[in-house]
Amino acid sequence: LLTLVSPPPTHQPSGSGKTSLITHIIATALSTPTPSSAIILIDPLQHFSIPLLTATLLRLFTSTSSPPPPPSTLKTLVKNALHHLHILHPPTFPSLISTLRSLPTYLFSPSLHHSTHRRIHSLILDDTDAFLPSIPPSTTSASASATLCFHLTNLAKSLDCALITSTRSTSPKYFRPALPTSWPREGCEVRIALRKVEAKKVGAGMSVEEAEAERDKEERGNGWCEGWRVGGRDHEGGGGGGGGGGRGKGLVIKIDKQKGVEIGEKK
Predict the structure, then answer these.
(1) Strand arrangement, sheet containing 247-256
(2) Where is region (Disordered) located (predicted)?
(3) What is the pLDDT of residues 98-136, one digit of tens each?
(4) What's the start-to-end Cα distance of the chain, in Å?
(5) 177 bridge partner residues
(6) Per-residue pLDDT at 242
(7) If DSSP codes are grouped into helix, strand and coil, which group holds residue 148?
(8) CA dist., res. 210 & res. 207, Å (int)
């Protein structure tokens, strides 16, 4: 059970790296030949980028083969991998619950897709907080959370797959999901806080060329994000007002539209 949490939009309105990290997880799973895997992605805001996933798959297929496959083979590998990513876009909380209830029927229907012979690597719910406004007035957030967690954990158990969710936090200091979660006690949640590393500001020590290069990176949609582990009763914050810390060195996420998403260890 993996939860990705970013600061609230008032603190950091632009991308924090949640969907980019999800892209890397999906690409890694789909590019691994054994065991062959399929992914279920629920993407209510339609933030997920197929071009970025394609670029990441191309880099992974190229870097893990010696010599690298020819372009025609790479194209086939990527196309086959994309066949096994199943993206769903329920727009409201009630439709999300209906989608989760109907997933087993869909997954075990060979006439609907080509992944029935593959194991489900993970069930991913991106932007969980997007469903908050559509929770029925007669339902409390605690009740909605309990219903959602019940369906997600039951599905993950029946499919024997990983469960990944992402959300905004309610505070820039404490990385708690905007929609409170009520996972089973036996569930072992790993929570990763993520934030965008802002581009360098123009300063006395920066040349015009360096400033233009930073601006070009932003315009091309390239950038860096960082993440670190948080969570646990005595470890809710990221340290320094959400500015870092946590367990271990953390990770860095490099986003490049041409090369895809790369993950490294924070030094």
Answers:
(1) 85-88, 37-42, 119-125, 162-168, 2-6, 190-197, 223-230, 247-256, 260-265
(2) 224-251
(3) 999 999 999 999 888 889 999 999 999 999 999 999 999
(4) 26
(5) 169
(6) 40
(7) helix
(8) 5
Is the per-residue pLDDT at 225 higher than 60? yes
Measured distance CA(54)–CA(174) in Å, rounded? 34
Q: Which amino acid is at 93?
A: F
Q: How far is CA 151 from CA 84, 100, 119, 215, in A?
A: 22, 7, 19, 44
Q: What is the number of domains present in the chain? A: 1
What's the rounded Cα separation, in Å, for the pair 117 and 43? 24
Range of the domain at 21: 2-265
CATH number at residue 188: 3.40.50.300
Q: Where are the alpha helices (DSSP H) in the chain?
A: 18-31, 50-63, 71-82, 93-107, 141-159, 208-219
pLDDT in tens, 19-55: 999 999 999 999 987 778 999 999 999 999 999 999 9
Instruction: Kindly state the helix (H) or strand (E) to which residue 256 belongs, with its residue range.
Output: strand 247-256
Distance of alpha carbon 173 from alpha carbon 20, whole angstroms: 22
Six token digits for residue 224: 């860096």
Instruction: Tally the residues of the chain.
Output: 267
